[in-house]
TrEMBL record:
Protein name: Cell division protein ZapE
PANTHER family in UniProt: AFG1-LIKE ATPASE, ATPASE N2B
Keyword Transit peptide annotated: no
Claim: Endoplasmic reticulum is one of the keywords in the record: no
Length: 349
């Protein structure tokens, strides 16, 4: 019996993860790859001064938490929060925004602080209802929101209202996105009547621009690795420990299954998976499916699960002018992450 035969193969299409509000709240922490992120472990690119400046500003922001209290003769005063109650990290993909956001979360005082993607917070509201979600988050010292990219007016107004209530209760906010807060929705929607909501939300934040090039592309050049059909089976399990679990699905089967699972549960699809296999990858022309793949790849990247794929290169899947449309930054981020994940599998053409 070969070593490869000791790995377990599963199909993601047979998984139907579920989560309740308590599980969502318990999971509002940085993803595993940033479990130990610190400002000291962030490596600013010397060619872009804004990266080092961001570390300084965010460190000051984290250290300014607290309330001003009179201390009497022997009392001590805690530093009062200064400036705006939130910081918005604006910049392209791959400049380390999530690392910085996680570092802020780790450094900020607790015990109640939360870190999650935009979709996780909207899912929490969906699971609990708005008022109960506000109650669940009220009292947190810090709420970190990663990938703050709004795709519909309803979510925009929901998050504007939620953040407004939390800020009023004393919670501080930090968020990342590839688009400045005043520009969310530009190039995506024609609904001008909700721009006022976006602008009101923007007023909560100090915008911190972080320039730079994609660190993943600095470390890995080229495009996604494509595995031949003959090499696929061996590549999927090569080098893995005995009893490691790998997934094996066709691209179309995964696409169909993602339509039946809420994006907030995509992380559950890949829980325990050591390597993800996709067969017969092809170009996408349906934007809804393309955005579902983007959300899925975000969770795969968070979990750092390498990908082995056959068919066309994964960085070529966004067709029909998608890379020139309003969601181009999402697609470009996904491409960057898929290149890194296919190289992480260690498979050569």
């Amino acid at each position: 019996m070969t070593a490869a035969s000791t790995q377990r193969r599963v199909s993601l299409t047979e998984r139907t993860p579920s989560s309740d509000a308590h599980a969502i709240i318990a999971g509002l922490t940085p993803p595993p790859q940033f479990a130990n992120a610190t400002f000291e472990s962030y490596r600013p690119d010397p060619d872009f001064a804004s990266q080092a400046e961001a570390v300084t500003i965010l460190t000051e922001f984290a250290d300014s938490f607290g309330i001003q209290r009179g201390g009497g003769l022997f009392g001590r005063k805690k530093k009062a929060p200064v400036g705006q109650p939130g910081i918005y990290l604006d910049g392209g993909f791959g400049v380390g925004k999530t690392h910085l956001l996680a570092s802020l979360w780790h450094r900020a005082p607790g015990p109640r602080k939360y870190f999650g993607t935009f979709i996780e917070y909207t899912s929490l509201v969906g699971a609990l209802g708005y008022q109960q979600a506000v109650q669940a988050l009220t009292g947190a010292t810090l709420i970190c929101i990663d990938e703050f990219e709004l795709d519909d007016p309803g979510d925009t107004m929901l998050m504007t209202r939620l953040l407004g209530e939390l800020v009023a209760s004393g919670t501080r906010i930090a968020a990342t996105s590839n688009t400045p807060p005043g520009a969310l929705g530009e190039g995506r929607f024609a609904a001008a009547d909700f721009l006022r909501e976006i602008q009101a939300m923007s007023a909560h934040f100090r915008t911190l621009r972080i320039d730079g090039t994609d660190y993943r592309r600095r470390a890995v050049t080229g495009s996604c690795i494509v595995t031949s059909g003959a090499e696929y089976s061996a590549a999927l399990t090569a080098g893995l420990a005995d009893n490691a679990e790998v997934s094996d699905d066709t691209f179309d089967a995964l696409l169909a299954h993602l339509q039946t699972v809420h994006p907030s549960r995509y992380a559950g699809l890949i829980e325990g998976i050591s390597r993800l296999g996709l067969r017969d990858v092809h170009e996408l022309t349906d934007q809804t499916r393309a955005l579902q793949i983007v959300a899925f790849i975000d969770r795969v990247y968070d979990a750092q699960v390498p990908i082995v794929a056959t068919g066309i290169a994964l960085d070529q899947i966004f067709g029909d002018g998608m890379l020139e449309g309003g969601y181009r930054k999402k697609y470009q981020r996904a491409i960057s992450r898929m290149i890194a994940l296919t190289h992480a599998a260690g498979v050569q053409r």
